[in-house]
Amino acid sequence: MVKFVDENIFIEQYNDQTMRTERRKHLRLPLNFKVKLDMPCRDLALRGSTKNLSFAGAFIKLDLIPPVLPNDYFSLTLLGQVEFTCRVIHSNSEGIGCQFDFIQIKYYELFKKMMLSNASDPERIIKEIGCWAETKGH
After folding, report:
1. CA distances (Å), 111 to each of 9, 11, 59, 62, 86, in order?
2. In the chain, what percentage of residues exceed pLDDT 90?
3. In what order do the strands lie in the sheet with 9-14?
4. Model-level pTM?
């Protein structure tokens, strides 16, 4: 039996043993950065922090979890410096998991430096960036 928890994680059960399988393609770094979420459609501005962060998305810890649905969009500002447009993937009592949908080029270089300087394995991130760049052009 296979049960999808969200688009990044699914649960497999074989012979009474349950295995959680990670399907994310991007390395998630356990970084605790301050963030601001703006949800204009709900007239909300919230502050929180990242639980983890990758080039594809983040999990945002919040004290107040707004009612969100998968595919809702919001703006995310990381450390008051880097702005993203994000899509909700899932939410729980701890916060919101989101996928980055858009980042302006002027913020991308700063974000890349932040990720590389905080990675325990920067070479893996460099490979990820290279693979992403190669596949996006085709």
Report:
1. 25, 32, 16, 21, 15
2. 60
3. 2-6, 9-14, 17-22
4. 0.76
Residue range 31-76, pLDDT digits in tens: 999 999 999 888 889 999 999 999 999 999 999 898 899 999 999 9
Amino acid identity, position 72? D
End-to-end CA distance of the chain: give it in Å, rounded.
35
Tell which CATH architecture fits domain 34-136.
Beta Barrel (2.40)
Query: Beta 9-14 vs 17-22: how paired, if at all?
Result: antiparallel
Q: Are 75 and 88 in contact (CB under 8 A)?
A: no
Indicate whether 11 pLDDT > 70. Answer: no
